[in-house]
Structures are given as C-alpha cells and as structure tokens.
Design brief:
- By secondary structure, the chain is mostly beta strands.
- Helices cover 0% and strands 50% of the residues.
- The termini are far apart.
Length: 222
C-alpha cells in the first residue's frame, strides 16, 4: 500500500491462511487501513497451517495509520507465525482495539521495532491466549499504548525494552492462569507510567536488568 492509499476493510483480512508453509506479506508505505471487523487483520491466518508465516511491514521512513475497532492479530492459528515489523524511521498510529501477539493456542506472534514509533489507543497483548506465544523487541523506538499484558490467560510473553527505547504505559494488567509465563527485560530502555499505581509491575515470572540499565520516568507514584 503506497503513500496516500486508503483501504476500507469491511471483512477480515488474513495473511498466510491457505496451504502448508504459505506466506503472506502486506507492506505499508504511508497508507491508511480502516479495519471494521472485530478480528479485522489476522497476520498469520485462521486455520492451522504448519510453518506458515504472515508479515506486516511498516516500510522505512513512512507514517502509517490503522483505524476502526478491529484488532490486529499476530499468530492467530496453531503452528502459524505472525510478524509486525516497524522498520527504521517508520511510524504506526493505530486507533484499533488491540494488537495481540500469539492470539490463539499454538500461535506465535512477533512485534519488532527498530528506530520506530507505535501509538495505539488500545492494548498491546504479548502472549495473549492460552498456549499462544508473543515476543516484543524494541531498540531506539517509542511505544505508547492504552494498556498492556504479558503472558495473559495461559500464554507466554517475552518483552525487551532495548537501548534508546521510550515506553509510556499504564500498569501491567495480566490475568494469570495455569500456563501463564511472563518475562520482561530492561536493556537500556525508559519506562514511563501513565498514572499512579500501587501495583505497576505485577504477575512477572522473570524481570531482568542488563548492564545497559533501565530508566523509570515516574510522572506519578508507583
């Protein structure tokens, strides 16, 4: 989708849905995508397809917009991988309800950000379903979201706030059930809280601090 393009999706868009080892790629380069369905954009399809991979790329040095109430689902079928890449200099502004990584049992989702920006009014959920696996990796990037979970409801979530990253988030809200696993690594990033909280970081199985350290920009008590 090239600069200035607008796509209004009244039905679900699915990448990598048909056939074993299928591949689906959507590139956005300054475009707008209006997702109207609740399960609007499925990156890594709806049916178990071994080794299939769906990829959504925000191309370098472009600003992209996603609208509507539909979620962005990364890894929405067993044995299927969904990847969202924000390439160097790219930005994604989303008014969608959520970005879910590993959004079903056996699904695998990746959100990779390098020198990029992501603003979403909804949640970023890493390992969002029982048996799902999600990974968020950030370097020199900014992330602002309405909420976040790691290893929610039996999922496995891994997050790394790398050097130069600035993250603005409310309190971590994770529903811990059997099988939930949550790992958070501070590798030189900055975490800012959006509101006061007495339980800002909770429900983590592991929290790591590398030699690059961590910065907490506390605008309200936590």
């Amino acid at each position: 989708m090239e600069s200035g393009a607008v796509f209004n999706a009244s039905n679900t868009i699915t990448l990598a849905s048909w056939g074993l080892s299928s591949t689906g790629v959507l590139n956005m380069a300054g475009a707008k995508l209006n997702i109207l369905q609740a399960t609007g954009l499925q990156v890594g399809g709806t049916t178990s397809r071994s080794n299939s991979v769906g990829t959504l790329n925000m191309l370098a040095n472009t600003t992209n917009t996603m609208m509507g109430g539909g979620s962005i689902l990364l890894g929405n079928a067993a044995n299927v991988t969904g990847v969202l890449n924000l390439q160097s200099g790219s930005a994604l502004n989303a008014t969608n309800s959520a970005i879910n990584l590993g959004s079903t049992s056996g699904g695998i989702g990746f959100l990779n950000m390098t020198n990029a920006s992501l603003v979403i009014t909804g949640n970023v959920n890493i390992g969002s379903a029982s048996g799902g696996t999600g990974t968020l990796m950030m370097t020199n990037s900014t992330l602002t979201a309405g909420g976040w979970t790691i290893g929610n409801s039996g999922g496995t979530g891994t997050v790394s706030f790398g050097q130069g990253s600035v993250v603005t988030l409310p309190a971590l809200s994770t529903t811990r059930t059997a099988g939930s696993y949550a790992t958070l690594t501070f590798d030189g990033g900055t975490l800012s809280n959006r509101a006061a909280s007495t339980s800002y970081l909770q429900g983590l199985d592991h929290a790591y601090l590398t030699t690059n350290g961590a910065i907490f920009n506390v605008g309200a008590n936590i």
